[in-house]
Amino acid sequence: MNLNRIILASLLAQLVLISCNTPVVSTNPATQAALLVPVYTTDTLAHDTDDPAIWIHPTDPSRSLIVGTDKDEAGGLYVFDLKGKLDSTRSVPGLKRPNNVDIEYGLKIGDTLVDIAVVTERLTNQIRIFRMPDMLALDAGGIPVFEGETGTGYRDLMGISLYKNKKGDVYAIVGRKNGPVDSTYLWQYLLTGTGANTVKATLVRKFGAYSGLHEIESIAVDDQLGYIYYSDEGVGVRKYYADPEKGNQELALFGRGLFKEDNEGISIYALTDSTGFILVSDQQDHSFHIYTREGSTENPHAHLLLRKQYVAARESDGSEIVATPLLPDFPYGLFVAMSDNKTFHYYPAEKIIGDSLMNSRKK
Question: Residue 40 to residues 68, 82, 273, 328, 349: CA-CA distances in angstroms?
């Protein structure tokens, strides 16, 4: 009887693992570790979490904030503290299917430098701009983008990333649900402040190859090195110069054939001014691939796959990482990933990247 109970318990345990779809072994040649659970999970939103961004407080890192989208026609941009508690006083409900969000520091408006969060609002074909940390709107109700496009889905906004160059100019790089395959999928806008405490957007270029296979949502910019990365889902990660004056040549396409289905969320961890890691979500595999931020001596655009890490976050398509210490829980920085249960998950940066990998690359 005891033996039967042991066998039954073992079978039940296996069924739980299967039903949770929790992989413990990868067929990917890169080293991977067992499933990582978050330190904190945010309060649950009403509809569909999609993309987070992290704002670092300028004088007190413990007061830093996470902003995340709730992707629905009655959605919003929601603010959380470092333990995942919702800050309803700062949150912005009532947005029309907000998709992706990004944060940039020091946009000049008059004589003031302002930190901003910019979110794409799909159903209005606009970007929305809010001042951090009080979430005051700076866009007079919204700024239209992709004007003049008429193809199906060509104005349905999805991805966004912000870039600040050495001169202090701030740009928004915007993507959409669908678009042409003629290397004009992404549009880049210069953001400038006005005396009326608002921001305007001026189109400066159209660029970016598109396979036509799935869609392009996740976009990430490395401000320090001046590169744009975006996920051409089902194909790989494409790389371009962030500075419009450097041209529209594709510099790299990496990760081909290494993802289960869609390569999605991209985030960049700066170990030094020039080294670090690029993290890319393997959405249907519930894992993240970790690549070198820097290339090789022979090819500065050769990004090596170092390992992959499975996480408790499910079907993650939006993520963000910072290297700033946020003690005591995140001494080497914070990684935030969207999960399909209407939450965002917080992980220590060194755990998602890997302790041994972090230590070996610091030497």
Answer: 15, 8, 29, 13, 13
